[in-house]
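Deliverable D2.4 — example input (C-alpha cells):
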C-alpha cells in the first residue's frame, strides 16, 4: 500500500531503520520475512515480535505512532495494550453483522484495559456504480452507526467501497496522495482530522 519493500537497515546502535515513503516511516513484519512466508505465531513469539517492532526500531521524532492491528482480541492486541501507553483506539468495521461482532469485542477489550476508544469508522459503507451512479449498500447500511449508539461512541466517518481505493492501494500510491481532491481521499482526511481532534494534547 505504501510502495515499500526490502529489509530495514541497522543503525550503529543496532536499531532497525524504518522504511519511508510519502513522509511516513513504516515498519512491518512483512519487511523481516519472505514475501510469501506465513506468520503463524502465538503467545510468546507474538509478544517478542511486537516488542521488536516497538523497541528495536529507530523511530526518531514522530507526530503519531499508528499501529494497525488484526481484528479480534488476541495476543497482539493484549501485548500492545500492556506494553506501551496508548492515547486512543479506533475501531474499523464493515456494516455486516459478522464483522460487527469482532468490532464490539475489540471496543470492549480496549475499555477493559483502560484504553480510550476514540470512535468507530464504517468501512465499505456504500458502493456507487461508476456508470449509472446508483448507490448500493452491499454490506448493509448502518450497522456500525447502530453499534456506535449501543456503545455510546462516535462515528468518525465512512469509507466508501470504491475501485479507486483498491487500485491506488495495489499500486502503492494512496488515494490521498494520488487523487487528493477525490471524494474517497476527502473521506480519509475527514476521519484523520476527527481522530486528531479527539487525541489528548501532548505535553509541550
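Example output (designed residues):
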Amino acid at each position: 500500500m505504501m510502495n515499500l519493500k526490502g529489509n530495514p537497515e541497522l543503525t550503529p546502535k543496532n536499531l532497525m531503520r524504518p522504511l519511508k515513503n510519502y513522509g511516513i516511516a513504516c515498519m512491518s513484519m512483512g519487511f523481516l520475512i519472505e514475501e510469501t512466508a506465513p506468520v503463524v505465531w502465538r503467545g510468546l513469539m507474538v509478544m517478542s515480535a511486537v516488542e521488536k517492532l516497538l523497541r528495536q526500531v529507530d523511530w526518531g521524532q514522530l507526530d503519531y505512532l499508528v499501529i494497525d492491528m488484526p481484528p479480534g482480541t488476541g495476543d497482539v492486541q493484549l501485548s500492545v495494550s500492556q506494553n506501551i501507553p496508548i492515547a486512543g483506539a479506533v475501531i474499523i468495521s464493515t456494516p455486516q453483522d459478522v464483522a460487527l461482532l469482532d468490532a464490539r469485542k475489540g471496543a470492549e477489550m480496549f475499555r477493559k484495559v483502560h484504553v480510550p476508544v476514540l470512535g468507530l469508522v464504517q468501512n465499505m459503507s456504500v458502493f456507487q456504480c461508476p456508470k449509472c451512479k446508483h448507490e448500493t449498500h452491499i454490506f448493509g447500511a448502518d450497522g456500525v452507526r447502530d453499534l456506535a449508539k449501543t456503545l455510546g461512541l462516535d462515528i468518525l466517518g465512512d469509507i466508501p467501497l470504491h475501485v479507486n481505493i483498491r487500485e491506488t492501494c495495489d499500486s502503492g500510491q494512496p488515494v490521498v496522495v494520488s487523487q487528493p481532491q477525490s471524494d474517497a481521499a476527502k473521506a480519509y482526511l475527514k476521519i484523520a482530522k476527527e481522530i486528531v481532534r479527539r487525541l489528548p494534547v501532548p505535553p509541550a
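The chain has a mean pLDDT of 90.
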